Sequence to fold (1162 residues):
Amino acid sequence: MQLGLSVSDSDVSSFTPLVVLELADDTKAEAITWLLNRIRDKQQNGDGEGFLSDAECQYIIKHELDTLRAKNEEHVPGYPKLKLYPGKSVVRRLQSKGVLIQYFPLHNKEDLKRLSFSWYKKFKLSLQPLDDIRHYFGEGLALYFGFLEYFTFALVPMALIGIPYYLFDWEDYDKYVLFAVFNLVWSTVFLEVWKRCSATLAYGWGTLSRKKAFEEPRAGFHGALGFNPVTGREEPVYPSSKRQLRIYLVSVPFVLLCLYLSFYVMMVYFDMEFWAINIYNENPDIATSILLFVPSIIYAVVIEIMNLLYRFAAEFLTDWENHRLESSFQNHLVLKVLVFNFVNCFASLFYIAFVMQDMVLLRQSLATLLITSQILNQVMEAFLPYWLQRRRNKKVHKRMRRLMGDKELPLLGQVQLETEMNTYLGTFDDYLEQFLLFGYVSLFSCVYPLAAVLVVLNNITEVYSDAFKMCHVFKRPFSEPAMNIGVWQLAFETMSIIAVVTNCALIGLSPQVKAYFPESDTQLILIVVAIEHVLLAFKFILAFVIPDVPKHIQVNLAKLEFDSLEALKKRVSTHFLKKEP
Amino acid sequence: MQLGLSVSDSDVSSFTPLVVLELADDTKAEAITWLLNRIRDKQQNGDGEGFLSDAECQYIIKHELDTLRAKNEEHVPGYPKLKLYPGKSVVRRLQSKGVLIQYFPLHNKEDLKRLSFSWYKKFKLSLQPLDDIRHYFGEGLALYFGFLEYFTFALVPMALIGIPYYLFDWEDYDKYVLFAVFNLVWSTVFLEVWKRCSATLAYGWGTLSRKKAFEEPRAGFHGALGFNPVTGREEPVYPSSKRQLRIYLVSVPFVLLCLYLSFYVMMVYFDMEFWAINIYNENPDIATSILLFVPSIIYAVVIEIMNLLYRFAAEFLTDWENHRLESSFQNHLVLKVLVFNFVNCFASLFYIAFVMQDMVLLRQSLATLLITSQILNQVMEAFLPYWLQRRRNKKVHKRMRRLMGDKELPLLGQVQLETEMNTYLGTFDDYLEQFLLFGYVSLFSCVYPLAAVLVVLNNITEVYSDAFKMCHVFKRPFSEPAMNIGVWQLAFETMSIIAVVTNCALIGLSPQVKAYFPESDTQLILIVVAIEHVLLAFKFILAFVIPDVPKHIQVNLAKLEFDSLEALKKRVSTHFLKKEP
Fold:
């Protein structure tokens, strides 16, 4: 690869590059000149340096690039086939045709050093520097780390209760009723309190009452040229009915097929399980007792692989559905992935708990699934990319040295290095992992009280490994303003509703409770169902009554609005009285 | 009472009065002069006549009166005890101390004639003139009549299915499963479609994306003088903790006590019921078979009386809770009234259905309750006020004639007449009645298919009697802009959730379904519960997936916002480039 820095004529030392655009190797010179002119056209007014953080400047640059629109050009200069029409986003056209390979913000070495020191390099018991993270990476990522921290802290009481439970009641499978009640309350309160924390963070960062920007069509969206009914601009139009057909005739059946496959794999796992138990029963020694765990471990690995493969399929399908907006694409992707991952991870546990009603097997399965998936996750998420990154870094360093000799060329080197880094694909996978962990804990931790302890341990290392990978494994991502964790709040809330139902059912199944109704199962079931309905109603009332935004922030927001209204009134009245010059 | 029209010096014939302020008989002259001067102060710019409808002008006048604030006056002239402080609402102070008795908008005789003709005077099968109603009474009331109409139409299919059901399956108590399933789907779809209808109406009237105006403290709110943290103005402040104490230590126990009383009355009713059945069994003839209905009728009347008494108590208590905002007052009042009315009206039906499991008694009770309460309602709501009004009108006419001789003085006469008319207290009672009817239909109509027919008949007369009472029995109310039916949407949705649960339980109890599980009740219950959970989940997903605002309105709103954004951008850029003169 040849490296041409278009800024090489200006003074490199005093210049802090923010964003890198990587063009294809064989890009025509005239196209480059044209693009630079067009970008500089937009640059007239310049940013107020120092006033905005790096991350904000980068966000603005991204916005400016994304809204760079063709005027009268019929095609990209040098590329007669890359047709343009007035209003078409230039960057998207270049990107979709492979001329512009990528554009990404550059790391700021000094800020990064400072951030990573306060974040994960010193061993500390203090909280994460969320404001610094937000300053460097933007609100979206800072909210993720805020959530991770909050979730971990919220699990501590559960872990503390879980340890003695685990140590002293290990053989006493019946005593889980109290723990199930605790889980049930915990999972409801957890999310309500988070909403308030999230509002407090977002208020502090000024994004709480942010209006959604007008959304442009996503890069991959295609269709016949038509008119947007809202903007009146020319843009590709794709009939919604066609998309619906694709969703209901292809995507939905595909998801159902995958779910069936997942069930099939589950049944194979149960066959393996029985086979292992039989061998153990025939010949109980250490070797066969270890064998008991093998089916679960294999199943856990298979689950992770299936999740991974499905993820690619879901992305492909959702892309093919041709959604106009990024948000709609994301919603459909999240829905597809969540449904499958939920079934894939939890179906076997539900089956063991409610069809087989075997609490010993449930406990063993849960433990193996949880531990195996955590280990796999840490490896796949942090160690593997880190190791690949190191190998790549070394190669790049070597090549740079061969190319430049011993001359220092920090900027060019940095760009070269970061260009080859992996791209961070957003917080999707990180939230998904937390979602599944939340599921394990809130659904079934009453039969395996150590689950919370394991998740706390996992999340502590997760903070470090996520922090490390953000700073050193991935390209710096563009910062994205966010006022909350978006669709994930809904996903976690749905899980907490399922948790109420599940825990009520587990309580109903417990021998302890059953002992109260020795004669009639009917009465027991009716009472459990009644309690469950009351709890669900209570949960909804609670969610409704607890304000999502703390009182003092509500007052501040109201004050802001009142002041702006008063100012508007004054302006209007002076306008009427004096007729502005 | 002496009548002094302060406009009597201007030309009466060309002047259309909009709003009447009734001051106390012994109001000091200097206070009147001061108040008129202060009001005229505000009037400088005048309204663009013809541009706004009467109702809108009246709304503006009300707003102007409500925001008439004291400047430097220490007290109301002539009333040294009526203290004022800068920023205090003048009208509220006058009102709370009984100087200003009331202020209300006047009817416009010609518009009213036209409206009432197209609304209820001609016998027609066409829809109500919602746009005209909105024009004369404002959006809040028009939405109520829109809802009433929509509800009635939505019930027609149910009534049509109900009639043959009632005629041919009357003795066959088992065949209600299908009807229960229909109810279940109907109650969900009903509310989702209404949301879209309501959005369409509100969009047409321009109130759909209306921002809530800044809310002033309500008239009855009192407390030590302090500073409002939002506006910085001096105003009464009442600590929220004290209010919470009043709510939880007085209001909640009182409501619970009333609920207990309601249960007690229910038990007395059952005793009466058994006593009547015993008499009938001992000596079955026509007299005793009529006696069978007497307990239900008495109970229905007692329920209505208890609802009425409770209503007064709830208003008193909520007022005493001293809420700062009218909206918060309304929410607490609605909650109190709804909980009690729901229990009072439906507890006996639930008891009969699920504890006694006596479907024959349930049907009989439901029929008697429904018919009795409808008759009572129509009497209390329309005929009684109408009759009282006619008596009062005659008296006023007689007195006017005695006072003025035979001289025509239409304006003074109209003011005099309308002053003594009852005040319309808002749509609360009307919605409450519809809410209870919705409950009867969606909860239990499967065992008494004629319920929908009765409700349809009731609502047809309701439209006429409500229309009549709005036009001729009550003072014209101030129009109130509204974008939807507010808290009632939530109330109806809650009822529809209860309807799903109830109908599932009724299905589970039906002999038809029970026949499929001859051996085990347990299995039946588990299956019914599972189906109920799936239905509830489906209901929530449906509510989430169906957009509340129809597509074409969404596009129009987006276009509006886009255009205003573009206009803002242009304004900002010309500002930057040219530096406005």
Observations:
- Chain A touches chain B at residues 45, 214, 229-231, 501, 521-522, 525-526, 529, 533, 555, 558-559, 561-562, 565, 576, 581 (CB under 8 Å).
- Confidence is low (pLDDT under 50) at residues 1-12 of chain A.
- The longest strand of chain A covers residues 100-105.
- The longest helix of chain A spans residues 359-404.
